Amino acid sequence: MIVTIDGVAASGKSSVSGGVARALGVPYVSSGLLYRAATLLGLEARLDLHDAPAVLAHLQGHPLRLEPLAGGNRIWQGDRELTGELHSTRVDAGVSVVAALPEVRAWVDAQLRALPAPFVAEGRDMGTAVFPHAGAKFYLTASPRIRAQRRAQERPEDVPAIEAALVRRDELDRVQSAPAPDAVVIDTGPLTLDGVIQTILAQLPAQLTSA
Ligand SMILES: Nc1ncnc2c1ncn2[C@@H]1O[C@H](COP(=O)(O)OP(=O)(O)OP(=O)(O)O)[C@@H](O)[C@H]1O
Ligand SMILES: Nc1ccn([C@H]2C[C@H](O)[C@@H](COP(=O)(O)O)O2)c(=O)n1
């Protein structure tokens, strides 16, 4: 069983996926972490992030390992844990460039499809390109201002700066971020985190919640 939760940047995908996964007793899979880790490695190696063959060759030489857990995902390159370094402003600024490379997308998709189900998968194209046959699909939205206000609780930048960066990233990620036609779209703006989780749990087919 696979449940997909896609959505725009900072719409609550990881927090909501974690809550849904815990309620179902399965792990969740954060696909964005693979793009973020690929970006960090590219930046550290001073690669041109537009150079797909260079980025891919570097990834193949420095394999990433995603550890999907219900309590939070961790990601490793060899013995080094990268997780804590992936939500910096520097990685945010470069990740859309790396995520636009078809070669990198194919590499990430192969990593994700190799994971053993059941799980909740979150990202941008989980319900469209990666797991089109998922048992249930959701897509989270919220206005840029609300998303920026939430992010500002965890970042040093102010709300207008965060909002501008989110709008820029939404635009850069637009191609792969369309909701699946069969996804339930949820505006998280008026909802609490738990409200979003309960909304999703209430809409899951009975065979998923009893599995
Ligand atoms: N419905 C909600 N109400 C209030 N706060 C929320 C809600 N959903 C998420 N948040 C908060 O918004 C912030 C962003 O959430 P989260 O990191 O889960 O989003 P994301 O979509 O995974 O982000 P990114 O695209 O950057 O990976 C977090 O601080 C989270 O606690
Ligand atoms: N399935 C995915 C997941 C993520 N991305 C890109 C888009 C984002 O800018 C970046 C980081 O993702 P986030 O942590 O914000 O969810 O990775 C994508 O293109 N496809």
From TrEMBL:
SUPFAM superfamilies: P-loop containing nucleoside triphosphate hydrolases. ATP binds at G7, V8, A9, A10, S11, G12, K13, S14, S15. Pfam families: Cytidylate_kin. GO terms for molecular function: ATP binding; dCMP kinase activity. The keyword Metal-binding does not apply. GO terms for cellular component: cytoplasm. One of its GO terms (biological process) is pyrimidine nucleotide metabolic process. InterPro entries: Cytidylate_kin, Cytidylate_kinase_dom, P-loop_NTPase. It is an enzyme of class 2 (transferase). It is found in: Cytoplasm. Residues 3-203 form the Cytidylate kinase domain. It catalyses: CMP + ATP = CDP + ADP; dCMP + ATP = dCDP + ADP. Its EC number is 2.7.4.25. Keywords: ATP-binding, Cytoplasm, Kinase, Nucleotide-binding, Transferase. Belongs to the cytidylate kinase family. Type 1 subfamily. This is Cytidylate kinase. It comes from Deinococcus radiopugnans ATCC 19172. The lineage of its organism: Bacteria, Thermotogati, Deinococcota, Deinococci, Deinococcales.
